[in-house]
Design a protein that fits this description.
- There is one protein chain.
- This protein is mostly helical.
- Helices cover 55% and strands 6% of the residues.
- The protein has a 4-stranded parallel beta sheet, sandwiched between helices.
- α2 packs across α3, α3 crosses α10 and α13 packs antiparallel against α14.
- The radius of gyration is 19 Å and the shape is globular.
- The protein starts with a helix and ends in a 13-residue tail after the last helix.
Length: 302
């Protein structure tokens, strides 16, 4: 059974191995500490906990980088996490730089617009940009296919991640800190990340683990339930959660990816993952289209 095979047999031992990995990596790279983006979400919370256990709270810095579309709850959870762990915490509002670049000019103004209206706009736009059998996210992996509105949408989202990456490396280099990534395998295998954005880091401790396994590890290491239990969201556009963007639950997605990697029969995978066979084909397509994002830049063989 796929679900049973994905269960981490000893999460406490696994967490200890991850802590050793972070500590050893920091030593080998001659860094004085670790820095990471704190989003208020589960992945960054788990990495922060592991880092504190690995190198001590005095050697860990978290940066929260809100912008126009960031929810208030994200700040509250990020601040709470930093306080619980006792790590250095810095808030950097990236609205001014995004406005200067022109990012906010790609979408209608949001001043004085209630959050509920913003969420409805985002929902309708996502629906509008979708095509038959091709959700918006899949079309984004194809570069927008010449659709100018979709290409603007891609730039609107991806630029936010790349600005955050720049700040992380700026403060990382000032303090001689190692930049910790927070990507997981579910995101990595489907392209649900931004190349040279949230994928840019010195190390990626969680990359071997699916989202459902991240939950297991977080429970073992005592991450607050309020963070574990809240719906995962990229927090880049109002109202859109991870599973809304991906079009499938993480539980089904993780089992589907694992089953495909293990070469299992697709009908069997669909049965165990409790999804339609067409969704297995969709996930395969995401994995194929996102393959270039997982590669280093190519160079000519001359």
């Amino acid at each position: 059974m796929i679900k049973e095979r994905l269960v981490i047999q000893n999460p406490h031992d696994t967490c200890k191995k991850l802590e050793d990995f972070i500590g050893t990596s920091m030593e080998k790279s001659h860094k004085a500490g670790c820095i990471l983006g704190i989003s208020g979400g589960l992945d960054s919370a788990l990495v922060a906990y592991l880092a504190v256990r690995a190198v001590g709270k005095e050697n860990v810095m978290g940066i929260f980088m809100p912008e126009r579309d960031t929810s208030k709850k994200s700040y509250n959870d990020a601040r709470m996490l930093a306080d619980v762990l006792g790590i250095s915490f810095k808030e950097i509002d990236i609205k001014p730089i995004l406005r200067k670049i022109g990012v906010y000019g790609l979408e209608p103004p949001a001043f004085y617009v209630p959050r509920s209206f913003q969420e409805k706009y985002v929902y309708n736009k996502n629906k509008k940009l979708s095509r038959d059998n091709e959700p918006t996210f899949l079309r984004m992996l194809k570069g927008g296919e010449g659709d100018r509105e979709l290409q603007k949408h891609i730039a609107y989202i991806n630029t936010k991640h790349r600005i955050r990456m720049t700040y992380l490396y700026y403060y990382g280099e000032i303090n001689n800190y190692m930049v910790l990534g927070t990507a997981n395998k579910s995101e990595y295998m489907t392209g649900f990340f931004v190349k040279y954005g949230d994928a840019a880091a010195d190390i990626q401790p969680l990359l071997p683990f699916y989202k459902t396994q991240i939950i297991e590890l977080s429970k073992a290491i005592m991450v607050p339930d309020s963070i574990i239990n809240k719906a995962p969201a990229p927090d880049l556009m109002p109202g859109m959660g991870d599973e809304d963007v991906l079009g499938i639950s993480y539980e089904s997605l993780d089992m589907a990816i694992a089953g495909l990697e293990w070469g299992l029969d697709e009908e069997k995978i669909a049965e165990e993952a409790r999804c339609d066979i067409s969704q297995i084909a969709y996930i395969k397509r995401l994995m194929e289209l996102s393959s270039p994002l997982r590669e280093l830049p190519k160079s000519p063989q001359i």
